[in-house]
Amino acid sequence: xxxxxxxPTDGSETSLAAALDGxxxxxxxxxxxxxxxxxxxxxxxxxxxxxxxxxxxxEEYQELMKKIGIEYLKPIKEAAEKAGxxxxxxxxxxxxxxxxxxxxxESQNCxxxxxxxxxxxxxxxxxxxxxxxxxxxxxxxxxxxxRPRLKNK
Length: 153
Hints:
There is one protein chain. This protein has a single domain, classed as HUPs (Rossmann fold). The protein has helices spanning 13-29, 58-82, 97-107, 130-138, and strands spanning 4-9, 32-39, 87-93, 112-116, 143-146. The chain has a five-stranded parallel beta sheet, sandwiched between helices. It is elongated, with a radius of gyration of 16 Å. By secondary structure, it is of the alpha/beta class. Helices cover 41% and strands 20% of the residues. The termini are far apart.
């Protein structure tokens, strides 16, 4: 039914639970899984004239975010491989995670985005997380919104 499914994660517990639900859904459909992690863009300290020595350089920041992204995407990759699914991953730097998710979904010809109802922004929001809401409003392909049940919750 769906040949390629994009599964975003922000590394939070709820996002990971939804991502693993997404891999299970992909396995039921024998779909290719594309994991994505979107990191915020590097921010220069605009309040001072020089960059303090303790402030990371842009290259250091990007390298750190890629390492973090690899860790966040690792459980998705392992679950996809265990299910015998084709897997690839993407990293993006953007101050609009929703725009980046939609852009990658379109560029990779995904037929579905499977994402959690809430991520790092938390369960305190009443209806949907802000990134999920924005993806729904921007996207022209189907978006399956998962509300995972967390262990011990």
